[in-house]
Amino acid sequence: MMISENSSNKPPRSSKVKTSDIRGKMRYIAYGVVGLFALVGLRCISQDYGKLLAYQQVEAEAKAESKTQEVPKFNVKPPPPPPRKHNPLRQEKMGSYKRQFDFQNLVPMDYLPAPPNLKWPEADFDRFTPEKKLELLRQGCGEVCDRTMRGKPSLYFNFIEKKVNCKALWANHIIDIPRTLGPAPLMEPAMKKAFLYHGAVPLEYHVKWPINQQRLSTDDTTSKQAWEWSHENIEKEKQMCIEGTLKGTYSETQTAMMLNGLKMAPRVAGGHVLVVGSVSPWVEACALAAGAAKITTLEYGVLNSTHPKVNTITPDEARKAYLAGTFPEFDAIVSFSSIEHSGLGRYGDSLNPYGDVQQMARLWCTTKQGGNLVLGTEMERQGQDEAMMWNAHRRYGNIMYPHLVANFQQLAHAGGPVYVFTKHEAEGLDISNQ
Fold first, then answer.
1. pLDDT digits (tens, 9 = 90+) for 35-71
2. Could you report how far apart the first and last alpha carbons of the chain are, in Å?
3. Is 305 helix (H, G, I), strand (E, B) or coil?
4. Which one in 108, 116, 171, 350 has a CA-CA gap of 20 to 30 Å to 328?
5. CA 255 – CA 337 distance, rounded (Å)
6. CA-to-CA distance for 393 and 275, rounded, in angstroms?
7. 88-95 and 15-67 helices cross at what angle (nearest 10)?
8. Is residue 44 helix, strand or coil?
9. pLDDT (0 to 100) of residue 420
10. How far apart are CA 328 and CA 316, in angstroms?
11. Rg of the Cα trace of the chain?
């Protein structure tokens, strides 16, 4: 076979040379991609840094303007609020549900200008820091807000005796101030210790995002019929409660437990009963079925009852009546699935770590000597331990529940979450006149 001279002089192609060329090209491509990502990253960082500087500048200006004005006291008319500069970054940060639990990224502010279109005193209360709010909420609270007391063993859980300044507790109108309209609130870091009993109670989340049912605590509702309590409907539910077919808010079983508790309370039959927290009058109907002579319902929403034995009152009206000496004492206090929501912001109330115990202490002040308490709340059970279920409710157990029912002696267990109590009275418990 003939081999040409030219072909014999050409060196054979090496596979190593070909591989190195491919590796070199891939290296250059990788460098280019990394460089491109670096440029994009630097641009994003610069934009975010610019936004952060602008945000901090606006907040610093607002803070500087607010410090020039004296913080108004609650017993005087506040000065007109300073103009608030529009800050879309703050609005996005506070209003986005995706950041509801991102406490670390919230910029702390000592004193904010009042939000627009709000009336006193709600607008002014929201201008205070969480620390200042706690100070105002604790006014007149005394031992009621003491988390360190453990009490003594009793029938089902510990019994705690606390001194109560009834006049001061009812006079503190800060407890009744609703929060401003807006998204469901996140837990203030400054209030976390008080909410969780200094770490003794775990924090859990009931659902992924906070619950906002603010409209249920106002008279602005899409269904006005929900706030009309007719005589016919209450009598119908009364009969259903007797027959065991009334579902109430939850089920026939829960309704039967409440009726059983009402019958176990000796002062319900023939007495004046205060029902705390109702949108539907099923508890009132069962109280009538148990023989109550008269019922007053304490509810944030504006209700209209046409039943001659059922009337309603708002917390603000109750506070004013108590201070004026016209609020009656009651033979029995009844509540089902209401107290555990107090102070969590779910139903339009302001955040208040002591909302539930302050409410119960006020009720103790309005209960007659020897009167009863029939209480149904969310309780710990197998597989579900005591916890702060933000922001749905408190799940009570051996730590929180004794504080909730302080100064009420345990009388009977009506089944499930329903317990019956008798008002405990001892010399020096009410320190209003001291």
1. 877 777 777 666 666 666 666 676 676 666 655 545 4
2. 127
3. strand
4. 350
5. 12
6. 19
7. 100
8. helix
9. 98
10. 15
11. 31
C-alpha span between 152 and 348 (Å, rounded): 36
Q: Can you spell out the DSSP letters for 166-197?
A: HHHHHH-GGGGPBPPSSSPPPPPHHHHHHHTT
Q: Which two tokens stand for residue 205?
A: 């989340």
pLDDT band at 106 (very low <50, low <70, confident <90, very high): very low
**pLDDT tens track for 138-148:** 999 999 999 99
Q: What is the DSSP string of 211-252?
A: ---GGGGSS--S-GGGGEE-HHHHHHHHHHHHHT---TTS-H
Tokens of 113: 């200008």
Q: What are 192-234's pLDDT values in tens digits?
A: 999 999 999 999 987 777 888 875 554 444 344 447 899 999 9
User: For residue 147, what are its two tokens?
Assistant: 């988390």
What strand order describes the sheet that includes 310-313? 310-313, 294-298, 272-276, 330-336, 367-376, 418-423, 408-415
The answer to whether the CB of 374 falls within 8 A of the CB of 420 is yes
Rounded to 5 degrees, what are φ and ψ at 389? -90, 85
Q: What's the rounded mean pLDDT across residues 314-337?
A: 94
CA distance 364 to 171: 15
Q: Which of 285, 325, 279 is nearest to 298 (CA)?
A: 279
Structure tokens at 110: 């000592």
Read off the DSSP letter of residue 111.
B
Task: Pick the closest to residue 162 from 171, 177, 149 (CA basis).
Answer: 149
H or E segment at 415?
strand 408-415
Distance of alpha carbon 60 from alpha carbon 110, whole angstroms: 11
Amino acid of residue 266: P
Q: From residue 45, how far is each of 39, 40, 41, 52, 136 by CA, in Å?
A: 10, 9, 6, 10, 42
Half-sphere exposure of 136 (CA within 13 A, CB side): 22
The residue to which tokens 């509702």 are assigned: 221
Do 371 and 333 contact (CB within 8 A), yes or no? yes
* Side-by-side strand order, sheet with 393-395: 203-205, 387-390, 393-395
Backbone dihedral angles phi then psi of residue 289, each to the nearest 5 degrees: -65, -30
268: phi then psi, degrees, rounded to nearest 5: -75, -50
Say which amino acid occupies 91: Q
> Six-digit token pair at 198?
């200094």
Give the 3-state secondary structure of residue 426: coil
**Distance of alpha carbon 257 from the chain centroid:** 26
Q: What phi and psi, each to the nearest 5 degrees, are found at residue 336?
A: -135, 120
